Amino acid sequence: LVELPPETSEQLDWRPSTLFVAVHVRKKYARKTQLPESGLTLPEQNVVVARKPPEAIPGGLAGAGLTAQVIVSKGADHLPLYRLEGIFKRQGVRISRQTMDGWWLKTAEFLQPLYGLGVQVVLASHVIHTDDTPVKVRDAHRKQKHTGRFWPYVGDPLHPLTMFDYTPTHQRDGPAAFLKDYHGYLQADAFSGYDGLYLESNGRIIEVACWAHARRKFHESRRLDSARMETALAWIGKLYAVETDLRKRCQGEWEKLPLEERAERIAAQRQQRSRPLLDGLHAWLEAEAPKVLPKSPVRGAIDYTLNNWVALSVYLEDGWLDIDNNEGENSLRGLCIGRRNWLFCGSDPGGRAAAVHFSLLASCKRHGHDPWVYYRDILTRLPAMLPDAAEEDLLNLLPHLWKPD
User: Fold this and answer.
1) Given phi > 0 = left and psi -120 to 50 = alpha, else beta, which region is 311?
2) Is 8 exposed, middle or buried (0-12, 13-18, 19+ CB in 10 A)?
3) I need a surface site. Which of 9, 100, 130, 147 has the fewest CB within 10 A?
4) How do residues 15-28 score in pLDDT, each as one tens digit?
5) How crowded is the C-beta side of 11, counted as CA atoms within 13 Å?
6) CA 262 to CA 321: how far, in whole Å?
7) Whole-number Å distance between alpha carbons of 250 and 277
């Protein structure tokens, strides 16, 4: 037989990740001739030891990579810590969930300077999208149970970060405190807690309502009055068709235009094409409302739209605005998936710590970063920079400007 070139094929396989021990070797020196008394400064000491590299958790067991793995596994991959405990046990290391929870809390505290700066970036936006979702709080130490709230704040394309806030209640005090220095448009649902915020801001914050919420109410009532509800849905469908066309233009012929010019063109197109549709829908809703029973869901959908008409029409004025608040709602998807697994926060401080991690993880996702690479990098670089880091240096560690070394 004559040997021919061999046939080759490729196959994906898996090798489990491994825990390893990083050994820090620090040189130590002693004076040949001892001083009578060892002092505090290096020239006065009889024995000196090289310093360890700065750490996010000084003296902690976990290195930057392991800490990043715990944070990403819980916050981005939605693994409760008891499951992660089992995974590490299979790899031959016993790390309790209480220990990992301590790492979660301490790193959130350590990352507060980055979190605070990220909030400032988002508050400089021309438009912010926001929403909220409940979370159970079960404080075993204080024997307290209540429902807290997570609030995402999605910055505009010039300030592309998504920051979360945690509050122990659903009252308007949380958004009011977070947005106390904000000037611009706020796109949200029709939660009554925002009403006082808009009034007290004296025009500083402009309400922008969500057509997806309005549409949902018509969709949910279509079996009760199909003729009216399908008519309303058809009107709204035409509004969304305009937005679909504008989105295609932004991805095509307008893609290379500056953002400001693109926004001007979007606003002009909306005034030309969407304004007549809105006027027609408004007239139709006002004509149909008296014909429907006041307490019916159908009348509820009509009244919701008419009562929020001004806020629903604001998006025509500015091309930076969206027709709906899907940006805000989509930012909660990961949190809601995770909540089904880890079930609750252990305390209000735990909720605030989670807001820090959810903010950085959501912003990493927004920019396509590997969250583990990001966390390992900042947990390695940031300890050497604090507490004297310049604001510009910290800004470069936020996900929208971060570049790995």
Assistant:
1) alpha
2) exposed
3) 9
4) 888 889 999 999 99
5) 4
6) 12
7) 22
Q: Which two tokens stand for residue 62?
A: 């976990």
Tens digits of residue pLDDT in 113-165? 999 999 999 999 999 999 999 999 998 777 778 999 999 999 999 999 999 99
Q: Going by C-beta distance under 8 Å and a sequence separation of 6 or more, which residues neighbour residue 361?
A: 71, 72, 75, 76, 334, 371
CB 177 within 8 A of CB 196: no
CA distance 247 to 250: 5
Does residue 387 have a cis peptide bond before it, meaning omega lies within 30 degrees of 0?
yes
CA–CA separation, 284 and 227 (whole Å): 13
Distances, alpha carbon 362 to alpha carbons 152, 333, 349, in Å: 10, 10, 20
Phi, psi of 269 (to 5 degrees): -65, -40
Report pTM: 0.91
203 dihedral zone (left: phi>0; alpha: psi -120 to 50; beta)? left
* Measured distance CA(122)–CA(111) in Å, rounded: 17
Question: For residue 14, which amino acid is it?
Answer: W
